[in-house]
Write a structure and sequence with these properties.
Structural class: mainly alpha
Radius of gyration: 21 Å
InterPro entries: L-PG_synthase/AglD (IPR022791)
Protein name: Flippase-like domain-containing protein
Distance between the termini: 15 Å
Subcellular location: Cell membrane
Order of helices and strands: HHHHHHHHHHHHHHH
Number of strands: 0
Pfam families: LPG_synthase_TM (PF03706)
Strand content: under 5%
Membrane topology: Multi-pass membrane protein
Length: about 350
């Protein structure tokens, strides 16, 4: 990744974050935001932080099973790498924390970095599929307040479309893994109407990518991946539920899942490090479906974001100190260099 490319994406993200925060604060009375904070029950913060770290521990457990084809790695190595990676996601642009996470584990366990990164691609696919299942479950079981029926119908339709596209991606990857040569040949034929440079770059990239993905086919290990995925997202939604209650907002647990899904899509939008702006506008939009006033919704968004941001940075810095990793090495980690090492 060239320096200019990184700078370009960074400043685009900053611009999007500034635009989102501007849209939020131009329509909000800051005095009402302050009043909402004064009414908050701060005792919910501690269990919310604990639940957040339990979710991260679940990620380390799932990663253990995903990395098994490479090496049996203890949780004592996987958990610090996970926390450091998510800390880097909060501080660095373009989700570079995924590369940092792979780099930290590869460095400690003596595994090829590109092979470790391939396990994180599968890790993200597991997240995507779990979130889509949550989306469908939520939209079919959660009843929004009167007047929001059209919104709910549109989201259910969107959920079906997204699930269909995602299943198509999964099917393509399975086919690419099992019949690599045939699938690459098919991709080449489909790309014939386009300039040759596309196929010259894409086909070798797909071949090297799928060659690096390894996944255990043992039923017990596959079941562990599925169970840990559900565990991860259940504990990711629990802090949302707790922090809603801290503001006196009592929703069914499916309501917390609904908000969490919006947050997931919010962090997918290019933004500044820490997902500032996109995270908050996603939370406010989700809460609007329950007729929560904008000022209170923004207060909730700020607290939920803070719980997922600051404790992870503190924990990540601690684990970096334990692992003898410097901030300078984290900042200068190059995806191309690490994946080729």
């Amino acid at each position: 990744m060239g320096k200019q490319g990184v700078d370009y994406k960074f400043w685009v993200g900053i611009g999007i974050s500034a635009l989102c925060m501007g849209l939020l604060f131009t329509k909000i009375d800051p005095h009402k935001v302050a009043a909402a904070f004064r009414e908050m029950d701060w005792r919910y913060l501690v269990p919310a932080v604990i639940a957040t770290f339990i979710s991260f521990f679940g990620r380390a457990v799932r990663w253990h099973f995903l990395v098994l084809p490479l090496k049996k790695v203890p949780l004592g190595s996987l958990y610090p790498a996970t926390i450091i990676g998510y800390m880097a996601n909060n501080l660095l642009p373009a989700r570079l924390g995924e590369f940092v996470r792979a780099y930290v584990l590869a460095r400690k366990e003596g595994i090829d970095t590109s092979a470790v990164f391939a396990t994180l691609v599968v890790d993200r696919l597991c997240d995507g599929f779990t979130v889509l299942l949550m989306l469908l479950f939520t939209f079919f079981t959660l009843h929004l307040p009167p007047g929001m029926e059209t919104v709910q119908q549109r989201m259910v339709a969107g959920g079906y479309i997204t699930l269909t596209l995602y299943c198509g991606v999964i099917a393509f990857l399975v086919l690419l893994k099992r019949r690599t040569s045939w699938t690459l040949s098919l991709v080449g034929k489909l790309l014939r109407p386009f300039p040759a440079v596309f196929s010259e770059k894409l086909i070798p990239l797909l071949g090297s990518f799928i060659g690096g993905i390894r996944l255990s086919t043992a039923p017990r290990e596959l079941a562990a991946v599925i169970a840990s995925s559900l565990f991860i997202w259940a504990f990711a939604a629990w802090p949302v539920d707790l922090l809603l209650r801290s503001f006196g907002i009592v929703l069914p647990f499916t309501g917390s899942l609904f908000i969490l899904i919006f947050l997931v899509f919010g962090v997918m939008v290019p933004a500044s490090p820490g997902y500032v702006g996109t995270y908050h506008i996603a939370c406010v939009t989700a809460l609007a479906a329950f007729n929560i006033p904008s000022e209170k919704a923004l207060s909730v968004a700020l607290v939920i974001h803070g719980v997922s941001f600051f404790p992870v940075i503190i924990a990540g810095a601690y684990h970096m100190w334990r692992e003898k990793i410097s901030f300078s090495s984290i900042r200068t980690t190059s995806p191309e260099k690490e994946l080729q090492s």
